[in-house]
Design brief:
This protein is an alpha/beta fold and about 260 residues long. The protein contains eleven helices and nine strands. The protein has two domains: about 140 residues, 3-Layer(aba) Sandwich (Rossmann fold); about 100 residues, Rossmann fold (3-Layer(aba) Sandwich), CATH 3.40.50.1860.
């Protein structure tokens, strides 16, 4: 069944409670005929890693907020949950929810993994907006997924704001990205769904020989493919990284000619 604004596909997005980046970047990436609805994951804990665990523990309750909406896929818009539960439990979670909902369940972590494997990337660079402890868990996750880490940039966290990551700018992610320009890498990943990255990627789809990806870019690509029942494809991904469709929408949104 199709609805008015989703003639080609409807995506359900699960986003962290205070995240101000997921929905705007998803809206920019979505092609005509594909729409999204969102549900917010909630945790009362102040500490980031405890919130991430809470999100997973209460995932079924959050997904229930979509009720019987005719979703073609569901995307989990946080990478940190993958780091906290590890690859094996993540795979089990994806299989269980996909079967129960009758639609593909896509985590951000696995969307990045799929993108890297589609590109044939082996050695990657990471730009992390996380605290040191979560960055360590992130590195462990990517190694568990069989990628070598050839460079790491740890961005400084802001204080005195409502959230240290969500108040970052694309220019900050871009500055971190360019610090890896001299590394021998197949791909660079800008981590986190809360740090704005689309502008950075549009300006720098490659740095040296490395293709530039981000958590949100990969989630957008993977959920769109899932909604359209389209298998991962290197050429489609390469066009997506270059912003062949969404670049004009981003420039219009930002008021840039």
């Amino acid at each position: 069944m199709r609805v008015e604004y989703a003639s080609r596909g409807l995506i359900g997005i699960l986003t962290p409670q205070a995240n101000t980046t997921v929905e705007p970047e998803m809206a920019i990436m979505l092609p005509p005929g594909v729409a999204m609805i969102a549900a917010r994951m909630f945790s009362p804990h102040a500490e980031l890693e405890r919130r991430l665990v809470d999100y997973v523990e209460h995932l079924d309750d959050t997904i229930a907020h979509f009720a019987n909406a005719p979703l073609d896929t569901i995307g989990l818009a946080t990478t940190g949950t993958s780091y906290m539960i590890g690859a094996a439990r993540e795979a089990e979670l994806v299989a269980r929810i996909s079967q129960r909902r009758g639609a593909p369940f896509v985590t951000t972590g696995l969307s990045v993994v799929t993108a890297l494997r589609t590109l044939g990337a082996k050695t990657i660079g990471l730009v992390s907006p996380y605290p040191a402890s979560l960055t360590e868990k992130a590195c462990a996750y990517w190694r568990e997924q069989s990628f070598a880490i050839g460079g790491l940039v740890q961005l400084g966290l802001k204080t005195g704001t409502f959230h240290a990551i969500y108040t970052m700018s694309a220019s900050e992610s871009e500055a971190g990205l360019l610090q890896l320009a001299d590394k021998a890498l197949d791909a660079i990943v800008l981590l986190g769904t809360g740090m704005p990255t689309l502008g950075s990627i549009l300006r720098h789809p490659r740095v040296g020989n490395a293709v530039v990806l981000s958590s949100m870019l990969c989630l957008g690509w993977a959920t769109i493919d899932a909604a359209l029942r389209r298998p991962p494809d290197r050429d489609t991904l390469t066009r997506f990284v270059r912003g062949a469709e969404w670049g004009a929408r981003l420039r219009a949104h930002m008021g840039v000619a």
